[in-house]
């Protein structure tokens, strides 16, 4: 706690829910700024902030904030892909349907057992979280399942257009210059990406980027 006396900013990586307690008991009394991870919330009595940050969607709004929540990996990933599409096609998009296929545990979470089951998630928080920066009336619909794997999350996105849909090549072109987004052509599965990241020396055998599997774009 005494370390906070010399801090300008804390990156709070406490277990989900503990960040709010830390805010009230530690950061606010010492007038210390903090960034919280995706296990917290920006809604209700336990909100750590009124801003759920996404670098692609609301970067400028974080300026001047003393407490900000960084969305979970799935929430962040959706924003990094959907926001460029909204920017390009605007009102021509009528609906986003996203199926989240979530891994059971990270590779490094060796103490966490991966159960032999596919678990359905009722009313996943991810859609509501994204709508905090897209707008509550955004036509975004999210379903989620958790599968017995440690090999990354996978998003299946169905984008519906009011008029003629763009060609796959037009979609891929949007992401050519997007930071943190890689378009892949030969990876047949998430393990291929992990193995490549390992041979390239990336930390945690992960590229730390969003991957678009180009051959699946139709």
Overview of this protein structure:
- By secondary structure, the protein is α/β, with parallel strands linked by helices.
- It folds into two domains: 2-70, NAD(P)-binding Rossmann-like Domain (Rossmann fold); 73-216, Dihydrodipicolinate Reductase, domain 2 (2-Layer Sandwich).
- It has five helices and ten strands, in the order βαβββαββαββαβαβ.
- The chain has helices spanning 18-27, 73-89, 126-134, 168-174, 190-199; strands at 9-12, 33-36, 52-53, 67-70, 93-103, 119-121, 140-147, 154-161, 181-184, 210-213.
- The strands form three sheets. A four-stranded parallel beta sheet has the order 1-2-4-3. It has a four-stranded mixed beta sheet with strand order 6-7-5-8, covered by helices on one side. The chain has a two-stranded parallel sheet with strand order 9-10.
- β9, α5 (190-199) and β10 form a beta-alpha-beta unit.
- α2 packs across α3 (126-134).
- The termini are far apart.
- The mean pLDDT is 94.
What distinguishing features does this structure have?
single chain; 218 residues; alpha/beta; Rossmann fold; Dihydrodipicolinate Reductase, domain 2; 4-stranded parallel β-sheet; 4-stranded mixed β-sheet; 10 strands; 24% helix; globular; Type II glyceraldehyde-3-phosphate dehydrogenase
